[in-house]
Amino acid sequence: MALELAKAEFAQAEVDLIEELRIPSISTLDDHVGDVRANAEWLASRLADLGMQTSVIDIRKGGHPIVRADWLGRPGADLLTIYGHYDVQPPDPVAEWESPPFEPAIREGFLYARGVADNKGNHMAALKAAEYTLRAGGPPLNLRFLIEGEEEVSGESLPRYLREHAEELASSHVLLLDGLCEPGDQPAVVTGLRGNLYVELEAQGAPTDLHSGLYGGVAPNPIITLGRLLGELRDRDGRITIPGFYDDVRPIDPAETENWDRSPEYDAEIRRLTGTRALEGESGYPAIDRMWARPTMDVAGIIGGFTGPGRKTVIPARCVAKVTMRLVPDQDPDSILEALRGYVAELSTPGVEITVRLLTVARSLTIAADGAGVRAARAAFQQGFGKPASLVRSGGSIKVALDFAETLHQPPIITGIVQNDCRLHAPNERLALDNYHRGIETLIHLMYELAGESAAVPAH
Fold first, then answer.
1. What would the pLDDT profile of 57-93 be if each residue is shown by its tens digit?
2. pTM reported for the whole predicted model
3. Using the 8-state DSSP alphabet, how is residue 364 labeled?
4. Architecture of the domain spanning 2-193+365-450
5. How far apart are alpha carbons 119 and 415 in whole angstroms?
6. Where are the beta strands (DSSP E) in 205-264?
7. DSSP 3-state assignment of 178?
């Protein structure tokens, strides 16, 4: 019955998603604080209409609320907690959008809007799956939604709430809907996430900018020093040179990589997706290994000196670089941070002082490929998408996944319904509507798979 409702109400499911997409819930901009709360209240209202016990929870001053909704209509049955986030990235550069980012538009089977892939399409598919099962007499297990508004700003509200209410939030299964399909619209379940050590390097020379004619040749130049230092952090073969950086890297289990695509065709597909002429990185490893299972170091941005139009001849006093390191299992971010601090001090020049500031840290996470949740998700995708999900690692970091694993003591099921070329965080973000509808059906199947039952009605 739930699957029949999903098939019969394609149009309404799209209308509901479009309604949420019109809310510009940009968590990083103060001008949109009201919009973020409006989105939270919109979700809470929709979930309450389904008969769920719903609340909008404020955790900290200046933060954004968490939406919690519980349906506990199956006493003694398992409980599935479903995670998503309703906040979105800014739409800049707006001029590159073919249609306004908060006026959703459908073109050639794709729905275009900011947030449609990250993350509103994912959590609305779950909301609709819950709706159809509830209308059909109730899902086979208990349900809880935890949808946050700070994912795009690495906020602390949900992690704090999980720590403070861990016993109350105990769950049999945790589903994190914040992932993508693989190229070729191949559904995927994540068995590992890289961690993230994100730092800021500040190079300070003279107390103030200096005239480059009067003092050129004698005054230290922080931009030159920092630029040289950044280049030294990674050699020509892509190896990171921080002392001890690779000491604790766990070797990849060959059994896990049996189905990884290490072919030249996969490399070509990554070049297509990135729009680059060639792939770079650590030599001796296929692209898929470098993306999923090897540590990295990248410079995310540099700020310093005179950058306006025209000319200004100065030796800048200060330069700042943002550096991100993706870490793999067994690497300790604390040890690497200390090693980095010592190393940049050695690489600096006598007239420039380098300060290392920690911005974000998230440890890596591995999930057993043969766990009950992973098996259930693969079976559900077989029903909804017509093919089982691949087992993949993710090169990215989902800090809240580790928070769930540590506080609720359950390995999360990490997946998503969004196609790989969704233009995440970029102009013209999009979601294939077929993925959205198949995703709703997949999530209905997942509830029954986790409960050890069958949804009975085959997918389209």
1. 999 999 999 999 999 999 999 999 999 999 999 999 9
2. 0.84
3. -
4. 3-Layer(aba) Sandwich (3.40)
5. 12
6. 210-211
7. coil
